[in-house]
């Protein structure tokens, strides 16, 4: 497997990709900054609550705890909701889990929402971008195997042993040995 062991959060907001090495701290707060509150993961979208949630490490296991804000969080395509006791339960995170902050009850990926992915590995190099604007068919390869997408949805992740591609419509983010062929 290409990439070192290490837990991180990849965040894409308004076309900007930022990676947070979660192992640097035990708790990471997520939200929109204000005069009174500066979260660790600062999101600028007005659909994100000031205290949107937090990531918490318990005995080496990472969890996301949502604060049940007005515009919500979608985790792996499902809206995070209260349980029967009106509490939001911690969500155990696994490699490749995705979240959309501020999109309401369904996964909406646009300029007003923030997309994120939990990864259990890190790469030495930086993320690269590829222009995929207007393409209907895109092929991704890590040098060993190709995956072809037709009419892919924003937020589609292609994860291979030697790299990762995140398709966001007009832009695709690549890391590792991943390449994209536009057709």
Helix count from the secondary structure assignment: 0
The CATH architecture category of the largest domain equals Sandwich
Number of strands: 18
SSE pattern, N- to C-terminal: EEEEEEEEEEEEEEEEEE
Whole-number total of structural domains: 2
Please give the largest β-sheet. 6 strands, antiparallel
Computed Rg:
16 Å
With strands numbered from the N-terminus, the spatial order across the biggest sheet is 2-1-11-10-7-8
Low confidence ranges? none
Query: First CA to last CA: what distance?
Result: 28 Å
Residue share in β-strands: over 45%
Overall, the morphology is globular
Q: Which range best describes the helical content: under 10%, 10-25%, 25-40%, 40-55%, 55-70% or over 70%?
A: under 10%
CATH class of the largest domain: Mainly Beta
Overall structural class, as computed from helix and strand content, comes to mainly beta
Q: What is the average of the pLDDT values?
A: 90
Which fold name is given in CATH as the topology of the largest domain? Tumour Suppressor Smad4
């Amino acid at each position: 497997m290409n990439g070192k062991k290490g837990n991180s959060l990849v965040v894409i907001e308004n076309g900007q990709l930022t990676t947070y090495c979660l192992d640097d701290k035990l708790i990471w707060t997520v939200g929109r900054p204000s005069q009174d509150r500066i979260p660790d993961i600062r999101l600028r979208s007005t659909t994100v609550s000031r205290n949107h949630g937090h990531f918490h490490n318990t005995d080496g296991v990472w969890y996301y705890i949502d604060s049940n804000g007005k515009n919500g969080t979608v985790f792996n395509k499902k809206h995070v909701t209260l349980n029967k006791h009106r509490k939001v339960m911690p969500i155990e995170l696994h490699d490749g889990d995705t979240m959309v902050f501020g999109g309401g009850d369904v996964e909406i990926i646009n300029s007003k929402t923030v997309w994120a992915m939990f990864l259990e590995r890190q790469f030495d190099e930086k993320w690269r971008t590829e222009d995929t604007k207007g393409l209907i068919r895109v092929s991704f390869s890590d040098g060993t195997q190709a995956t072809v997408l037709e009419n892919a949805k924003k937020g589609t992740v292609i994860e291979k042993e030697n790299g990762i591609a995140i398709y966001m419509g007009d832009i695709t983010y690549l890391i590792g040995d991943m390449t994209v062929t536009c057709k």
